[in-house]
Write a structure and sequence with these properties.
- Helices cover 36% and strands 22% of the residues.
- It is α/β, with parallel strands linked by helices.
- The strands form two sheets. Strands 1, 2, 3, 4, 5, 14, 15 and 16 form an eight-stranded mixed beta sheet that branches. An eight-stranded parallel beta sheet has the order 6-7-8-9-10-11-12-13.
- Strand 1 and strand 2 (20-29) form a beta hairpin.
- The longest helix is centred in the middle third of the chain and has 17 residues, at 141-157.
- The model has no long low-confidence stretch (mean pLDDT 96).
Amino acid sequence: MDRLWTNARLATMTGDGLGIVEDGVVASRDGRIAYAGPRAAAPDMAGEIIDCAGRWITPGLIDCHTHLIHAGDRAGEWAMRLEGASYEAIARAGGGILSTMRATRAASEAELVATALPRLDALLAEGVTTIEVKSGYGLTTADELKMLRAARALGDARAVSVATTLLGAHALPPEYVGRADDYVALVADEMIPAARGMADAVDAFCEGIGFSTEQTTRVFDAAKAAGLPVKLHAEQLSALNGASLAARYGALSADHLEHADESDVRAMAEAGTVAVLLPGAYYFMRETQLPPIDRFRAHHVPIAIATDCNPGTSPTTSLLLMLNMAATLFRLTVTECLRGVTANAARALGRSASIGTIETGKACDLAVWNITDPAELVYRIGFNPLFQRVKDGRCC
């Protein structure tokens, strides 16, 4: 054995609940979990012993939806929104995503990495061990690939697993105004094939100010041809049944979902598509349409929670804060919140076989907490009780 965490209380996230083990042990060998369970049933093991003194251990947290790689910020636009301008009006006037696009195109790959690292470090400090990072602010093949390379470089610079997602269909670049179908053809015919080996999935922004369901279908067909799974920004600002479209393609997740209807939820349930909720964006944009939480529950759609860290609609680097927002704004339970950043977040990335729960054979990605009850991780605001972050069996 490489290392043993003893005298611990475990929230393994196995089964349908928190999977609590009151007097638990976790043992690692070669970066994997060799044993996790009650101390009384543990086999004889040798290795470095870490006495957790009754602390709680959860799986390492997973932020399954971020736009961590970007240049610049949009604080000025936020001030405009406070004075009454709408997000859509700013976007149509050349701000919004296009503002970040200009800054990101002008930045070098090294600059993108350097500006993202402080954001990443803030998330790691709260126990995150896996993060998804989207492109989508380059909107040319070269710039989208630059973003994906920068995202992959984060995993070389820090002890974290990075899942990369190509979001070429994020916004219409100015050089394609009036030629949206031509841009979608670029994404489908050039960008997606070029991203093979650099992207783990393909995403799109299916929305009135983004891309239609027909255009999204073209993107998804190209992703399927390239052997890449899909995800979708769906039903954030309006009801286009993008979630149903995503489900037809067996999408890993549909994200935002404030305007999803019964047919969307049924389709997601049948496809096993995860509902990724983004309470930071809901809060920051002062939305009033709640995601259909009761429908997700009724149809047993798995719910994940993520930061949506981005410069325009969710400039947050606190996944713990998102837990409180998900509970307070969306009325999720403690169990739903904690599974939303562990087991269900892993499912949203297609990585349930290797992360998301504390089980023998999975990556030894752990978070050790100075708490007396798992509910504290959801209940507290602006408080970080992380004692130790463990990535692949190593304390970091």
